[in-house]
Amino acid sequence: MIIKFLGTSDAQGVPRINCNCQVCTVDDGYNWRRRPSVLISYDNKTALLDVSPDFKQQYIMHHNHGLIPDTVLFTHAHNDHIAGLGDYADLCFWNKVNSRIVGSPEVISQLVQRYPYLANRDSIKFFGCKEFTLGEWYIQFVKVNHGHNGYSYGLVFSKKDYRWAYVSDSFNMTEEQLSYFLNLDTLILGTSYWEEKTQKDKRSVYSVTEAFEIKEILKPTKMVLTHLSHDINADIMSKQLPENVFFAFDGMELQF
Fold first, then answer.
1. Where is the Metallo-beta-lactamase domain positioned along the sequence (predicted)?
2. What is d(CA 75, CA 48) in angstroms, rounded to the nearest whole number?
3. Of 40, 80, 90, 252, which cross-links 35 as Cys (Cβ 3.0–4.6 Å)?
4. In contact, 90 and 121? CB cutoff 8 Å
5. What does the pLDDT look like over 112-155, one tens digit per residue?
6. Model confidence pLDDT, tens digit, residues 213-248
């Protein structure tokens, strides 16, 4: 399995609108990020993990004329993770590709409410579930706290002796929630700021410094940080990361 990060920003994207900070005004490519989407390649097939508002541009830039994904896995129904669903559905419709929309039952219910016209298409099937498979990979949807923004789902992928997880939007996870992500080979975790100053009851995503603490608890072999805001200048801050901790960037690939 190979995954490619199509987008690695927080909900506002980088650069932000009307922002004159250093990261938003210097076009170095590495620090400019689109909203969260991931392309998954496995067994001569492709799937998506979330479909951001920037999906069309992401797809053209990183996968144009590639194998069209026939499955989309959703972490939660917030705008920055689902607003490209209409563009994805049109891509499938015009190319006569049948597709599966997969997520927890409550997330699927929200998607059907927001996109009722898609529920009437014979070529699109919605699957509300807590477990799913992609080829030989078993996927578990784990409900996690998303702080002030409610909840999200972390996805754990398992195959034989390898386990990795994608937890893009989480904050203040309980011990029980954290236990699902113990001793992973790779943990992909959302961290919007290097060190968050907002009061705790208003926050929704971990900071980079808090990710270091989570790494000590969960002990993944590798940790990749995504959902990065304009606070993260990866060119500079990557030098401050501990061993086996990395910032994701748009177009980055990982092979499992």
1. 34-227
2. 11
3. 80
4. no
5. 999 999 988 999 999 999 999 999 999 999 999 999 999 999 99
6. 999 999 999 999 999 999 999 999 999 999 999 999
Q: What is the mean pLDDT of residues 18-27?
A: 91
Element (H, E) at 94: helix 85-94
Q: 16-34 burial, b if ≥16 CB within 10 A, otherwise e?
A: eeeeeeebbeeeeeebbbb
- Sign of dihedral through CA atoms 102, 128, 112, 180? negative
* Cα-Cα end-to-end distance for the chain: 5
CB 90 within 8 A of CB 66: no
From the list 122, 155, 120, the residue with the least C-alpha distance to 50 is 155
How far apart are the C-alpha atoms of 208 and 224, rounded to whole Å? 11
Q: In the numeric block, which tokens belong to residue 114?
A: 């927001």
Element (H, E) at 60: helix 55-63
The beta-carbon contacts of 221-225 under 8 Å, at least 24 apart in sequence, are: 221/184, 221/185, 221/186, 222/185, 222/186, 222/187, 222/246, 223/186, 223/187, 223/188, 223/189, 224/186, 224/187, 224/188, 224/189, 224/248, 224/254, 225/188, 225/189, 225/190, 225/191
The answer to whether the CB of 12 falls within 8 A of the CB of 57 is no
Among the listed residues 181, 202, 169, the one whose alpha carbon sits nearest the alpha carbon of residue 52 = 169
- The reported pTM is 0.96
The answer to whether 50 and 82 have CB atoms below 8 angstroms apart is yes
Report domain extents, the chain. 2-251
Residue type, 125: K
The reply to whether CATH 3.60.15.10 applies to domain 2-251 is: yes
